[in-house]
Amino acid sequence: MSVATHKIVTDFKRPSAELVAKVAKLHVGVSGFEAGPRQTMHPDIKPLEATWRVCGPALTVRPEYWYDRMMGELAPKYAQPGDVIVVDAGGHIDVAVWGMSMTINAQSVGVAGVVLDGATMNSALLARERVKIPIFARAVSATATTSEGPGSINVPVICGGVIVHPGDIILGDSDGVVVLKPEAAESIIRNVEAHDKGEQDPEMRKKPYWERRGVLDKLKAIKNVTWE
């Protein structure tokens, strides 16, 4: 029987602060459209508080057993200010893989946010009372289990159906979470900015949206569409 190999990578190449700052200003929904559905996490992953927004390089966490918290507890040791911890918990939501103490630990080293393909505990405290860094999760659970198992840090993971590599740029708000490859980010930035500029153009806004989109021309090119 094969034995799983676990790897803890203590550092990785991060995108420039300038690039992350540009991405941080983008409209999340339009960014998801430009990046494509394979780069947009499952819509169940949302911030605990609707006003929260996050942007930063991914620091990835993959516990061998999805419910185990030990790798998540260790992750802040290798974080740099502005990193976003991304935890691959396999989409399971019956027990929490994150909580208050882990958030305080992450906040103390300047982590910009946490994205969980799983559940967190302590949502009321996290969102309203003590710690105010953005936590994105599939669900909230009132229970957790062991914190004793191995796993990997800063290896490729799957979060919300998206393959996330260390250093990918995580962008999220109440619309959801988008994963931008640094090498594709500049092109996406230009496209999103052009879209937003067009939407704000007073002359363009005088036209109905269907006209701007050329909907009638597209329909007329489809042979089996008729009007009555």
Protein described:
There is one protein chain. This protein is an alpha/beta fold and 228 residues long. It has one domain: Ribonuclease E inhibitor RraA/RraA-like (Glucose Oxidase, domain 1, 3-Layer(bba) Sandwich). The chain is built from 9 helices and 13 strands. The protein has helices at residues 17-24, 28-35, 70-74, 100-108, 123-129, 182-200, 202-205, 209-212, 215-220, and strands at residues 46-47, 54-63, 84-87, 96-98, 113-116, 119-120, 135-137, 139-140, 151-153, 157-159, 162-164, 169-173, 176-180. Strands 1, 2, 3, 5, 7, 9, 12 and 13 form an 8-stranded mixed sheet that branches. The protein has a 3-stranded parallel sheet with strand order 4-6-8. A two-stranded antiparallel sheet has the order 10-11. A hairpin with a 2-residue loop joins β10 and β11. α2 packs across α6. The longest helix has 19 residues, at 182-200. The radius of gyration is 20 Å and the shape is elongated.
